[in-house]
């Protein structure tokens, strides 16, 4: 047993217990008591000398002696904890002054200070045990409502669990109920307690058979409102005058309310083991037949969005208690799991090792709703979007409560009216909802109760409407005349005047809203009757009625402003818990203060944190709390050495948005199952994020008193040394233009609370005020009469900039647009800082040079700017300091210029304030500052681009109206319009950076599906020749399984290869190409884009065994796979061979014939030929190895094509895997993706008996080719031309390189790319220049798959025509690629074609080197060679 206050209470009371740190003496008490007693248990308590066990004098057991509690500070919050601990219902009163008589012995406790949320009295703040200044005349008492304990019920011998003989459990024994006075009202209570709907009948006389002894209850008399039968009046337990022939029964309608659900032991409340509440107990669900359909119902019932996976085999740990459900079979449309088909409750053939689990996205999709035909977007006919159609809502039962939910969902303020009868005109199409019944606290209309979708008895003349107040600024609130800023009389600011609130209907719901608005923690009490003194001025609000979840008090219902029937003697007050104090942190044994072992200070002692569940979200909180920037890694297993002392925290589970580690979910302080070898560590970036600032009490958000946010509180800045330079940093950080003035002496009114900064000294180039030099936080010699202020110029449209007279749009003379005219910039003080801003504003990448002296020619018109002085981090040039517009001492011979790299960096994105990294408010980094995005035009297409850029899967919803809270600082983007195909948000159409008409109440958010598994699951390639080729297998629930080949293709294989570090994907074989696997088939219908980092990020049908067979196992072949080197004894990989056969006498093959996605049989011409035997592994093409081969060992796996290995070679060892085409493998060369004679099968391989996910065309492409190479010998080298709009045109060489050439060579079937010549190497073309700025990755199947400028949009001339040289250049006439040097042309080469140094070559045998070869340029700059006869 331990003392009160020495430990955090359970997680649901975390806020109250953390507040215990705030006590002036508690740290000393904590230290002493922690040393003495360790982990606390609940101290026993009792109520004595009262009328029942739930009323009386409070006594607590300590040191084996009962003692009393002093009534100092004793109130209803303390009594509430006592009643909860004793299971005595609600606290009715907290009498003092020995109301229940004076006790004897010790007075154990004094100055009790409970918040009312503690689980037991030992969690409250108090003096040390026995320390008091009281006598027994001050003994505290409690009166509770005395709620009786609910006794368990069951119905037996009936047709279902909801019909049968009534039995009740008492004294650990089941017994019956006598039917004396038994009626339908009593039966109703039984049905309600069991969750069985309504009572249909109350049969008596042992209708369901006689039960065994005892008979527990008789003369039951319920009024019908009781929650349990044990709350009804009856004879004392076991007292009766009945026999079992009078046993009572009940028949209920069945389920009326869904059985409650919960998910436990998961990462969030939306993932974990499924548990269902039945018969007054939580139990689990067996995983038999459990799949994504059932998981979808669970997620819907819990409001957790979409189902991501349906886990089996107790993935989230084994539950305890009963297994309630088995063989659950849902259609997917049910509203609750208890509505699905299943075995009877408790009937199963399972163990806890088969407990079912679920992983949901975590957010229910927001139902689209709109108001049409009104005067604004905040009034009109209500329409909802369902099944891809808009429809109306019927006005049956439609009222102001329902309208309030609509207004809240739309961010339109409060509901003014809820008109019906189609006041805003009759709609068309479906009537989607009827009998809507909202409680008023819902966040979306779809959360309200209503008939099923489309079920109604209405016509469009009954269409419902809504009128909202519109978007309004919340009324400021303050607490005055209290002991601190978080307690006092409530005052609100309206019409430029502070006024009070009347206490009519005032309670903790309203107090909670006030505390939330002020950032003061939880509400402790809501005193009325001018508890904190009578206020002056008007009484602004009366009859305030909050649901408790509003963000600000002015969102609550109330009488109109100033309308009341009160006096100031009824002024309302509030007492909040204040913000819990953060537990101090430090990082030890690292290389700097921002890396090391995590240690936390608690109970006057430093201790460590266990690494169980430790991840990057937890580390992010540590780095933020320490001001160390972003988290880089989370070393575990005592990476920074083992600590000493206590292990304070275990199972830390942060969302990543907390401001302190002590705010995260965790075990109780000091409770763990670890040793110091598991101490957690952190490595942070070391660069802190800027502290938020705002300007208050000014005429707009760009003027006012400067306040900065630190340690969860806003505070002011002292005006000592405050000047225009400091003000400029504030204006820049807020995106408010330039500083106009820097007033001091509290010109904008005196602030309250902390003075955070003093002696601020900015250089002027800082991006945030917190980057400036100043005293330490909170260190000052000022009062609020010295609060600093700022007046900024405000948000202005940036002056447009362009670069002219240069080679492209990203280089040239700088010109700015002002007063409807373009003008130049003088080069005085012009350098790379200014050039960087220009390049950033134009989206042209980094600045390469800043040229002066009219390097790009003298401009006409005015010289607009001179002495431009940029810090380098401005968003636009017009934000930089400069002479006034048009003021200069220059001539056009001094015009400034810029050369940019032309390749803009993709601005980083992040999602904040959400439950995971894949949901939250969208923020983008621009000009070294994070800012938000306005929700104007924001939709799922925009969200899809963000989710893809962040690797967060699919976009689930795109909420606006600051759904994830309001951001601060700049609003960077507005009117974003993405097509959904962009690779980054910065590629979408939008207003210029920083130009908007929004406020932070319109900040855009996103909910992405995230990874389809909480953690990246392991992947391997099995059954192949190495780790980079084989059957795809994934590990799930501790078992390896395969992937079905349905929809399997190169994008999926590309992700596998990338995850394994095996390069790019060469093929995606299906049909168990590398042999059939065993075990489960875990995944099916994978849909990867090909850009994901891990397979876990691809969409699929969920984790479960699928309907596929192992003959459909998917495979992958990656580019990093190494086959057997020549000249070594390493055995080649050999699959299980088919029986050895003797080939028929033939001579030549005509190549593979392709039709659609299938490869037909090889067509071969028969001749006389000496047969030979060889292992056959799906080899196609008789005569593959020709010209009298002897002792010729060949291992061919899926080899196709005419004359693949030729020239009469002896002892020539070749290993070919899926290789195709005429003359491809000459002399030991290994290739992939080379194709049959006369066929174009872009980027594919024939393997075995099929074309692997490829489309083959005939010899001649229908309609002619789309690309060609001209101006050189052969079809595989020359100037690149592309066919578009009925004309051939060229491609500009801007950004042209080998990856682009590789795509062209692949598209033409010309082998590998050797070179990508520029500057019209093969001569200038004619006609249009179709493409410019082509940016291929190198793995595209066609040039049309590469990003490029729009068709015909270019800044090039034909002297910049791009060209390509492929390895197939030398194919014609028996010539082949040769590694000859230039001086070997016309002479004999020391190497044969394909020998050492050749592209793709691996060398040859000694026999081959004896053959002489000749080299020639063949009309090109790349030597070709030919065997001399």
Task: Give a brief description.
By secondary structure, this protein is mainly beta.
Describe the fold and architecture:
Helices cover 10% and strands 24% of the residues. Strands 1, 2, 3, 4, 5 and 6 form a 6-stranded mixed beta sheet that branches. Strands 7, 8, 9, 10, 11 and 12 form a 6-stranded mixed beta sheet that branches. Strands 13, 14, 15, 16, 17 and 18 form a 6-stranded mixed beta sheet that branches. A hairpin with a 5-residue loop joins strand 19 and strand 20. Mean pLDDT is 75; it is low at 1-40, 363-367, 1011-1015, 1122-1264, 1371-1423 and 1425-1429.
Oligomeric description of these chains: single chain
Radius of gyration: 39 Å
Question: Structural class of the secondary structure composition?
Answer: mainly beta
Care to count the β-strands? 79
How many DSSP H or I helices? 14
Strand % is 15-25%
Shape, please? globular
Helix content: under 10%
Distance between the termini: 101 Å
Descriptive terms for the model:
single chain, 1429 residues, mainly beta, six-stranded mixed β-sheet, 14 helices, 79 strands, globular, disordered N terminus, disordered C terminus
Lay out the secondary structure:
Elements: H1 14-18, H2 26-37, E1 45-52, E2 55-62, E3 65-69, H3 76-85, E4 91-93, E5 107-109, E6 141-144, E7 153-156, E8 163-170, E9 173-177, H4 184-194, E10 199-201, E11 215-217, E12 249-252, E13 261-265, E14 271-278, E15 281-285, H5 292-302, E16 307-311, E17 323-325, E18 357-360, E19 369-373, E20 379-386, E21 389-393, H6 400-410, E22 415-417, E23 431-433, E24 465-468, E25 477-480, E26 487-494, E27 497-501, H7 508-518, E28 523-525, E29 539-541, E30 573-576, E31 585-589, E32 595-602, E33 605-609, H8 616-625, E34 631-633, E35 647-649, E36 681-684, E37 693-697, E38 703-710, E39 713-717, H9 724-734, E40 739-741, E41 755-757, E42 789-792, E43 801-804, E44 811-818, E45 821-825, H10 832-842, E46 847-851, E47 863-865, E48 897-900, E49 909-912, E50 919-926, E51 929-933, H11 940-949, E52 955-957, E53 971-973, E54 1005-1008, E55 1019-1026, E56 1029-1036, E57 1039-1043, H12 1050-1059, E58 1065-1067, E59 1081-1083, E60 1115-1118, E61 1141-1142, E62 1148-1149, E63 1154-1155, E64 1158-1159, E65 1164-1165, E66 1173-1174, E67 1194-1197, E68 1214-1217, ...
Parallel strand pairs: 3-5, 9-11, 15-17, 21-23, 27-29, 33-35, 39-41, 45-47, 51-53, 57-59, 67-68, 73-75
Antiparallel strand pairs: 1-2, 2-3, 2-6, 4-6, 7-8, 8-9, 8-12, 10-12, 13-14, 14-15, 14-18, 16-18, 19-20, 20-21, 20-24, 22-24, 25-26, 26-27, 26-30, 28-30, 31-32, 32-33, 32-36, 34-36, 37-38, 38-39, 38-42, 40-42, 43-44, 44-45, 44-48, 46-48, 49-50, 50-51, 50-54, 52-54, 55-56, 56-57, 56-60, 58-60, ...
């Amino acid at each position: 047993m331990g003392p009160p206050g020495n430990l955090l209470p359970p997680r649901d009371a975390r806020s109250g217990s953390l507040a215990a740190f705030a006590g002036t003496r508690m740290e000393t008490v904590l230290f002493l008591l922690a040393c003495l007693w360790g982990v606390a248990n609940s101290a026993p308590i009792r109520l004595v000398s009262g009328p029942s066990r739930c009323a009386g004098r409070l006594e607590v057991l300590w040191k084996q002696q009962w003692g009393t509690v002093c009534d100092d500070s004793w109130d209803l919050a303390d009594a509430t904890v006592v009643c909860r601990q004793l299971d005595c219902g609600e606290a009715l009163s907290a009498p003092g002054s020995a109301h229940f008589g004076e006790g004897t012995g010790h007075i154990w406790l004094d100055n009790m200070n409970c918040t009312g949320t503690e689980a037991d009295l030992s969690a409250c703040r108090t003096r040390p045990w026995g320390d008091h200044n009281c006598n027994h005349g001050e003994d505290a008492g409690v009166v509770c409502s005395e709620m009786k304990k609910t006794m368990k019920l069951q119905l037996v011998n009936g047709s279902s669990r909801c019909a049968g003989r009534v039995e009740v459990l008492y004294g650990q024994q089941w017994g019956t109920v006598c039917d004396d006075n038994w009626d339908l009202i009593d039966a109703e209570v039984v049905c309600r307690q069991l969750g069985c709907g309504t009572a249909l009948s109350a049969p008596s006389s042992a209708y369901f058979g006689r039960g065994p002894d005892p008979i527990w209850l008789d003369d039951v008399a319920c009024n019908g409102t009781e929650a349990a039968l044990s709350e009804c009046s009856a004879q004392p337990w076991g007292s009766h005058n009945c026999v079992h022939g009078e046993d009572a029964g009940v028949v209920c309608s069945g389920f009326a309310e869904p059985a409650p659900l919960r998910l436990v032991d998961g990462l969030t409340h939306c993932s974990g083991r499924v548990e269902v509440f039945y018969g007054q107990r939580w139990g689990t669900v067996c995983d038999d037949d459990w799949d994504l359909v059932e998981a979808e119902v669970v997620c819907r019932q819990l409001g957790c969005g979409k189902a991501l996976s349906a886990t089996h085999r107790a993935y989230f740990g084994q539950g305890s208690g009963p297994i309630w459900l088995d063989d659950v079979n849902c259609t997917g449309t049910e509203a609750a799991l208890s509505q699905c088909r299943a075995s009877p409750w408790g009937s199963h053939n399972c163990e806890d090792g088969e407990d079912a689990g679920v992983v949901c996205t975590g957010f229910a999709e927001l139902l689209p709703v709109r108001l049409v035909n009104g005067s604004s977007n905040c009034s009109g006919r209500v329409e909802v979007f369902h099944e891809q159609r808009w429809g109306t809502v019927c006005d049956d039962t439609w009222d102001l409560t329902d309208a309030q939910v609509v207004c809240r969902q739309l961010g339109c303020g409060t509901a003014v009216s809820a008109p019906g009868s189609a006041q805003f005109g009759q709609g068309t199409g479906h009537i989607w909802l009827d009998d809507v019944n909202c409680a008023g606290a819902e966040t979306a209309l779809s959360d309200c109760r209503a008939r099923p979708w489309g079920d109604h008895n209405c016509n469009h003349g009954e269409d419902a409407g809504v009128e909202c107040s519109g978007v309004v600024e919340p009324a400021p609130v303050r607490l005055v005349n209290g002991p601190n800023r978080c307690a006092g009389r409530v005052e609100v600011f309206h019409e430029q005047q502070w006024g009070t609130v009347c206490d009519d209907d005032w309670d903790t719901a309203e107090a909670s809203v006030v505390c939330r608005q002020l950032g003061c923690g939880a509400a402790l009490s809501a005193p009325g009757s001018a508890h904190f003194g009578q206020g002056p001025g008007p009484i602004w609000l009366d009859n305030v009625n909050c649901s408790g979840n509003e963000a600000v008090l002015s969102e609550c219902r109330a009488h109109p402003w100033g309308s009341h029937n009160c006096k100031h003697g009824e002024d309302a007050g509030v007492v909040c818990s204040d913000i819990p104090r953060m537990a101090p942190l430090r990082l030890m044994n690292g290389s700097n203060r921002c890396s090391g072992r995590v240690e936390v200070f608690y109970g006057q002692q430093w201790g460590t944190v266990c690494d169980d569940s430790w991840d990057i979200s937890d580390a992010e909180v540590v780095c933020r709390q320490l001001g160390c920037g972003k988290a880089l890694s989370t070393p575990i297993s005592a990476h920074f050495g083992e600590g000493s002392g206590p292990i304070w925290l275990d199972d830390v589970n942060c969302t990543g948005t907390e401001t302190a580690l002590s705010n995260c979910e965790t075990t109780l302080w000091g409770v763990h199952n670890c040793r110091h070898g598991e101490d957690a560590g952190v490595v942070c970036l070391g660069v802190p994020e800027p502290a938020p600032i705002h300007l208050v009490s000014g005429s707009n958000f760009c003027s006012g008193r400067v306040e900065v946010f630190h340690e969860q509180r806003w505070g002011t800045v002292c005006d000592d040394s405050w000047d225009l330079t400091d003000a400029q940093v504030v204006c820049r950080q807020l995106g408010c233009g330039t500083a106009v003035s820097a007033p001091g002496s509290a010109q904008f009114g005196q602030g309250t609370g902390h003075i955070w900064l003093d002696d601020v000294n900015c250089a002027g180039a800082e991006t945030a005020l917190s980057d400036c030099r100043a005293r330490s936080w909170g260190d000052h010699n000022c009062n609020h009469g010295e609060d600093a202020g700022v007046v900024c110029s405000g948000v202005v449209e940036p002056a447009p900039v362009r670069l002219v007279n240069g080679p492209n749009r990203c280089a040239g003379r700088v010109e700015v647009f002002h007063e409807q005219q373009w003008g130049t910039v003088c080069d005085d003080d012009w350098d790379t800082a200014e050039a960087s801003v220009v390049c950033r504003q134009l989206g042209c990448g980094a600045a390469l040079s800043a040229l002066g002296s009219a390097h790009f020619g003298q401009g006409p018109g005015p010289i607009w700017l001179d002495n431009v002085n940029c810090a380098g981090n401005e968003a636009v040039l017009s934000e930089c300091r400069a002479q006034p517009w048009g003021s200069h001492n220059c001539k056009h011979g001094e015009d400034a210029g810029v050369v940019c790299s032309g390749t803009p960096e993709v601005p980083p994105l992040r999602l904040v304030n959400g439950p995971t990294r894949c949901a939250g408010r969208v923020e983008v980094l621009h000009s070294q500052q994070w800012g938000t995005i306005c929700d104007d035009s924001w939709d799922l297409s925009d969200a899809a681009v963000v989710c893809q850029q962040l690797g967060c899967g699919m976009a689930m919803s795109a909420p606006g109206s600051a759904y994830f809270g309001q951001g601060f600082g700049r609003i960077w983007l507005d009117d974003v319009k993405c097509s959904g195909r962009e690779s980054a948000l910065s590629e979408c159409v939008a207003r210029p950076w920083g130009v908007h008409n929004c406020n932070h109440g319109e900040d855009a958010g996103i909910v992405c599906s995230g990874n389809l598994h909480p953690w990246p699951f392991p992947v391997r390639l099995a059954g192949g020749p190495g780790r980079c080729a084989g059957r795809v297998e994934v590990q799930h629930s501790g078992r390896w399984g395969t992937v079905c080949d349905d929809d399997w293709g190169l994008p999926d294989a590309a992700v596998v290869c990338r995850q394994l570090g095996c390069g790019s994907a060469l093929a995606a074989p299906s049909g168990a190409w590398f042999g059939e696997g065993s075990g489960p088939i875990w995944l099916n219908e994978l849909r990867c884009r090909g850009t994901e980092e891990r397979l876990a990020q691809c969409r699929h049908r969920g984790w479960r065994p699928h309907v596929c067979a192992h003959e459909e196992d998917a495979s992958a072949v990656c580019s990093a796979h190494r086959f057997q080197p020549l000249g070594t004894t390493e055995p080649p990989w050999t699959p299980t061979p088919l029986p050895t056969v003797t080939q028929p006498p033939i001579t030549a093959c005509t190549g593979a014939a392709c039709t659609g996605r299938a490869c037909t049989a090889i067509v071969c011409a028969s001749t006389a030929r000496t047969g030979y035997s060889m292992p056959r592994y799906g080899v196609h093409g008789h005569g593959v190895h020709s010209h009298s081969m002897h002792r010729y060992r060949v291992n061919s796996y899926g080899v196709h094509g005419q004359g693949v290995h030729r020239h009469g070679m002896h002892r020539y060892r070749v290993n070919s895997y899926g290789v195709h085409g005429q003359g491809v493998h000459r002399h030991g060369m290994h290739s992939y993706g080379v194709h049959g004679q006369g066929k174009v099968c872009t980027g594919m391989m024939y393997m075995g008996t099929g074309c692997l996910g490829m489309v083959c065309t005939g010899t001649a492409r229908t309609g002619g080719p789309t690309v060609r190479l001209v101006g050189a010998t052969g079809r595989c080298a020359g100037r690149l031309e592309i066919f578009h709009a009925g004309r051939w045109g060229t491609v500009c060489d801007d950004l042209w390189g080998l990856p682009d050439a590789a795509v062209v060579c692949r598209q033409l079937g010309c082998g590998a790319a050797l070179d990508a010549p520029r500057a019209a190497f093969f001569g200038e073309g004619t006609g249009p220049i179709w493409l410019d700025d082509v940016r291929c990755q190198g793995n595209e199947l066609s040039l049309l798959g590469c990003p490029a400028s729009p068709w015909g949009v270019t800044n090039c001339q034909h002297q910049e025509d791009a060209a390509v040289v492929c390895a197939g250049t030398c194919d014609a006439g028996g010539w082949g690629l040769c590694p000859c040097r230039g001086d070997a042309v016309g002479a004999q080469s020391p190497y044969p074609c394909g020998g050492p140094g050749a592209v793709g070559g691996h060398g040859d045998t000694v026999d081959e080197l004896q053959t002489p070869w000749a080299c020639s340029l063949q009309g090109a700059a790349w030597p070709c060679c030919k065997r001399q006869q």
